[in-house]
Amino acid sequence: MNLPNILTISRIFFVPLLVVVLLTRVSNFEIWGVIIILVAAFTDWLDGYLARKREQITTLGMLLDPLADKLLISAAFISLVEMRLVPAWMVVIIVGREFAVLGLRNIASAEGFTIEASELGKTKMVLQVVAISLIIFGSRHPGLQPVGKVALWLVVVIALISAVLYFRKFWRKVDVQVKQRRAGLLILRRRSKKQDVATL
Length: 200
Fold this sequence. Notes:
mainly alpha; Four Helix Bundle (Hemerythrin (Met), subunit A); 6 helices
């Protein structure tokens, strides 16, 4: 357990806190909700920065970091659907993309290769935080609602594009793995045939 992993785990604990603040609509809930989102987003940047700088990249961190991000973003958007601030179909696309990519990464890890986060994926995370913040503030300040809607549409579009890119990367890696396995099997078969001939 190191500092980057502690920051990642702390981000997971922000999830229920954010849901309670938004759904109970406590006093100044929009301010507290945005503060929680921004602090969580900062810990996301900070844990990655510290892990690289201190060379403390661990398997636990690589597993928990994307999971913490997806739980936080999913909880925020689902809460906004419950508050009737965001259309459910848009959130289905956003959340579905998050867990589809997480599933691909887990399969890739089990197969012995990794799918690195693209620049578009990183941009999407920043835009999600901006969109959520604008939508939360827009619940009390109607002037921000059009900007929040534009940001939300951008999130949906980028989510779809980045999902396609992740699937393409995944299938290319799988294709390479399959070809390597087939080549290895052919080599083994040829060797075994040569050994059988030699024994004769």
